[in-house]
Design a protein that fits this description.
Order of helices and strands of chain B: EEEEEEEEEEE
Shape of chain A: globular
Distance between the termini of chain B: 37 Å
Oligomer: heterodimer
Helix content of chain A: under 10%
Order of helices and strands of chain A: EEEEEEEEEEEE
Number of helices of chain B: 0
Number of strands of chain B: 11
Distance between the termini of chain A: 41 Å
Structural class of chain B: mainly beta
Radius of gyration of chain B: 14 Å
Largest interface: A-B, 18 and 22 residues
Strand content of chain B: over 45%
Strand content of chain A: over 45%
Shape of chain B: globular
Number of helices of chain A: 0
Helix content of chain B: under 10%
Radius of gyration of chain A: 13 Å
Chain lengths: 114, 118
């Protein structure tokens, strides 16, 4: 079945460091891909998404490119801030377009220190 | 906008009792809500899809008589864990899709409810 695998955390970085959180997926057809972020005490929020191959999602300095050839959707940010400390979830929906159930990775906790 | 709340945020109960968790969309109407379960350091697993005015659709392996879902209005869905046992201890998260099409069917998540069964 469809699945998402993301790197284990926690990831600990100093402020202004470069961030990469790896995410790979297994899916039939053409899934839509998402990154969600969960700040302490809050619900998951959509960070960015991409609905087809080679699409790049971006938001708040974060980027991820839908790579069909490597079935990956790695999250990157050039310079992290303390306020980026959160848990990041990679996810997919099995069909492109419309809503469908979300399949999540295990989540990666990011801690950014001053 | 698009805020989802859950109540309670945490609950401790004795084995054999039932616990009800509420999921509310505060500033929008939601025909469809989802219930997820999350174990420590693991993914969110979809339990069921809750549709206003109709029966919930449960994922394979989820006991519908164990996890009762009621979506009685466009802003409220409830999950009742019946005859709870320690293995039901988990973090339960709901999400809602606004009925309005302008928000492109994005799911908005509640903050979760931590259930501990003694």
């Amino acid at each position: 079945g469809d699945s998402v695998t993301q790197m284990e955390g926690p990831v600990t970085l100093s402020e202004e460091a470069f961030l990469t959180i790896n995410c790979t997926y297994t899916a039939t057809g053409y899934p839509s891909l998402f990154w969600y972020v969960q700040y302490p005490g809050e619900g998951l929020q959509l960070l960015l998404k991409a609905t087809k191959a080679d699409d790049k999602g971006s938001n708040k300095g974060f980027e991820a490119t839908y790579r069909k050839e490597t079935t990956s959707f790695h999250l990157e940010k050039g310079s992290v801030q303390v306020s980026d400390s959160a848990v990041y979830f990679c996810a997919l929906t099995p069909f492109s377009g419309g809503y469908n159930k979300l399949i999540f990775g295990a989540g990666t906790r990011l801690a950014v220190h001053p | 906008g698009a805020v989802v709340s859950q109540h309670p945020s945490w609950v401790i109960c004795k084995s054999g009792t039932s616990v009800k968790i509420e999921c509310r969309s505060l500033d929008f109407q939601a025909t469809t809500m989802f219930w997820y379960r999350q174990f420590p350091k693991q993914s969110l697993m979809l339990m069921a899809t809750s549709n206003e005015g109709s029966k919930a659709t449960y994922e394979q392996g989820v006991e519908k008589d164990k996890f009762l879902i009621n979506h009685a209005s466009l802003t409220l869905s409830t999950l009742t864990v019946t005859s709870a046992h320690p293995e039901d201890s988990s973090f339960y998260i709901c999400s809602a899709i606004p009925t309005s099409p302008e928000i492109d069917n994005e799911q908005f998540f509640g903050p979760g409810t931590r259930l501990t069964v003694l």
